[in-house]
């Protein structure tokens, strides 16, 4: 059952915190792929909550991103690789909770692109096998798997991208291993961060808002930071979420509407911002799986229930990030970087009198 259908439950049953983190020592949560965009958001929000110890798992604990995580309160970085099962066994030792995430991105190869279904399934299998071992040994009480919105519909045979079907296969592997009762599946839609590309011709600029989906089709999106907020809320409220799944999104707008929003923020007056879609033929050549995904979004759509999510977010103290506030923040960051570059140049070249 999808969690969103449970929104009619009595308030007390849903929102009473479960006493998580009120005792001492704090429950330990392991976060896989902690240096990924999702993993980083999850680590930051769990750290900010002050009620968990976080074991941030990274392949390279001394990378810049990993060392930045290690500076956050209550965060320890440990080495772990989803393709090396034995590293997960020790990284998960004694934890109360696990946030599990996998990646299809293997490295770009001409004619294949970068996304490889089997690569992600191999990680998922190691992850779930380790979850099962630690659930049996007793300490592990809550596993969150981050999949993709929406669940596989057995009645529909729409061709779906490999980096979706891989996650659906991992979801099935959770079920067949009897882990449903300790698990929550969280299913995010496309990130706002995908719009923040450096690819020439498809960058956000004064006149362009880029995308991969047709300009008139509704496309659900989310700030990656919001994934961290939802995951924190799920770990804080296990009674409400154990055995459940939740599709999460922050916006549902067409490409044209997103472009109009950006134009309003930039106040470009008569200069019109165009929504620029990467032609599907080019997309298919560069990253075939993203081309398939765009077809799938246009035809089937993600299907998160924004109305119900807003009610639930309100109850859980989650502030859903709007695309317009994300764009404003990005814009002011860009401006302040430009300003600091200018003042940096000034301080280097203007003699101090
Ligand atoms: N992009 C979207 O719009 C979107 C939307 C919904 C869901 N998703 C899904 O969310 C997941 C995460 O995506 P993301 O964009 O957050 O990731 P990301 O920022 O691209 O980061 C990928 C991470 O994977 C780590 N990694 C690679 N191979 C690994 C392995 N064998 N073991 C452990 N870590 C490994 C890398 O870390 P190191 O190199 O530091 O080890 C890197 O931090 C993906 O499955 C993606 O399909 C994405």
Summarize the model shown.
With 353 residues, the protein is α/β, with parallel strands linked by helices. 43% of the residues lie in helices and 17% in strands.
* CATH homolog superfamily: NAD(P)-binding Rossmann-like Domain
Quote the CATH topology. Answer: Rossmann fold
- So what's the CATH class? Alpha Beta
Report the end-to-end length measured between terminal Cα atoms.
71 Å
What is the average per-residue confidence, as pLDDT, rounded to a whole number?
89
H/E element order: HEHEHEHEEEHEHEEEEHHEEHEHHHH
Number of domains: 1
- Helix % is 40-55%
Radius of gyration: 21 Å
Number of helices: 13
Count of strand segments: 14
Derived structural class: alpha/beta
Largest pleated sheet: 7 strands, parallel
Q: Poorly predicted ranges (pLDDT <50, ≥5 residues)?
A: 3-16, 342-353
Describe the structure.
The chain is α/β, with parallel strands linked by helices. The chain has one domain: 3-Layer(aba) Sandwich (Rossmann fold). Helix content is 43%, strand content 17%. The protein has 13 helices and 14 strands. The chain has helices at residues 11-15, 37-49, 64-70, 85-91, 117-136, 162-176, 224-236, 238-241, 255-266, 280-286, 288-299, 306-316, 323-349; strands at residues 28-31, 53-58, 75-79, 97-100, 105-109, 113-115, 142-146, 183-188, 190-191, 208-211, 219-222, 245-248, 251-253, 274-277. The strands form four sheets. The protein has a seven-stranded parallel beta sheet, sandwiched between helices. Strand 5 (105-109) and strand 6 (113-115) form a beta hairpin. It is globular and about 65 Å long. Residues 3-16 and 342-353 have low confidence and may be disordered. The chain binds NADP nicotinamide-adenine-dinucleotide phosphate. The site of NADP nicotinamide-adenine-dinucleotide phosphate has 24 residues, from helix 2 and strand 9.
